[in-house]
Design brief:
Layout lengths: L2 E7 L89 H6 L5 H12 L3 E7 L2 H8 L20 E7 L2 H15 L22 E5 L11 H5 L5 H10 L1 E10 L4 E2 L2 E4 L13 E5 L2 E5 L6 E5 L6 E2 L2 E2 L11 E12 L5 E12 L1 E6 L4 E5 L2 E5 L3 E14 L1
Parallel strand pairs: 1-2, 1-3, 3-4
Antiparallel strand pairs: 5-6, 5-18, 7-10, 7-16, 8-9, 8-15, 10-13, 11-12, 13-14, 15-18, 16-17
Length: 395
Amino acid sequence: MYDVVLLTLGSERDAPGGCGSGGACCGGAAETATDPTSQTDNGQTDTSSTSQTETGQTETGPTSQAETGQAETGQAETGQAETGQADTKQAPQPQAGGDTERCATERPRVPVLACADALNARGARVEMVTARSDAEIDAVLARLDGPARPDGLTWPDPDGKTRLVVATANDGQLRAVLRRLVRRYAPAPSKRPADLPGNRTLPDLPPVGVLPLDPARGGTHRDLAAQLGLPRDPAVVAAAVLDGTPRRLDLLRNDGGSVTLDGALLGAADDAGRPLHWRARVEVDDAILTDGDEPLLACAVANAGGYATLDDVTLLTAPDPADGQVEVAVAVPVVVRSAFGRKRVRLEVRRARGRAVSVLPREGKVPYLDDGVEGELTRKRSWWVEPGAWAVWSI
């Protein structure tokens, strides 16, 4: 029978991103300058494909081309507002009656306990773990490692008897775990093995079970579990982990050292909710959606359909998280004249699909949401598709 680890990220229950996304919580020690993006050569970080070590420095390195899957020299993900700082945020100082007290009384939520009961009833050996830092997430993921390889690479075990279930309050928390999986198993280019698929920079990541901690929310934005039709009932999640099959999905990596599971939406609005104009050059493979000279209202970079619409505007037509392509759309306000010579503004949506996309802001900062995590884009950012790189357990 399987050993199952039920992993929860220790944070306030609905905090965007949560802990385990670069900072330490509940008195845990913050990481400092020890975590390269991928595996290293002779103990040294291979900076030809990895991000800078997480030393709290702002982004200064050049951005690579998306198509090559090279140089991740941009910002590391924090799980909070991504403002160019690497993920070395210091742990909050405990205050009387504050974080220390909260963490001392922190207990698994009801869905986690219910899932553990269902797994135990089937004979699985279950361990519930609350991770409050990236290091603690990494300790859990190490249980998914395969046997030692002759080339010295750390590789996932395709026949492992340990299965991982991630209890998530939001997509940002699931992304935090997948980001650590990528950092654990992505080899440096100089150590690229012959058994790695030619269209990928990392091996098949171990499947994860997804246990949503909250009911599916209404409205136009649905979380990834709802989009994928994954179960939300803890007993059904347990059945999927023990009896289901891996459903392989595409992963978007980016040259900021992070990953995207659902998608990113770039743009902003003023205090009255009116969209603000901004400019950027947007390219999808060899297609140029905008050269940066015209104003934009929004840009969607999609692996799935979480950002398919913006208010009543359809940005994306058919995003598919398993088709090996990224779908991109830009919304451009265009001034046209009526038959009577009157000017009016219509919204033109331009779309393209491909393997990679780059967005180069022309001026200032461009706010965005990436898997629900807020950030500001100040430099070129590229995303590229890793087809079928990650998987979820499904019935």
